[in-house]
Amino acid sequence: MNYHTRKWIKPEDLNPNQTLFGGKLLQWIDEESALYAIVQLETPRCVTKYISEINFVSSAKQGDIIEIGIEATAFGRTSITLTCIVRNMMTRQTIITIDKLVFVGVDHDGKPTEHGKTQIEFINDRLRDRDGDIH
Question: Are 117 and 75 a contacting pair, CB within 8 Å?
Answer without folding.
Answer: yes
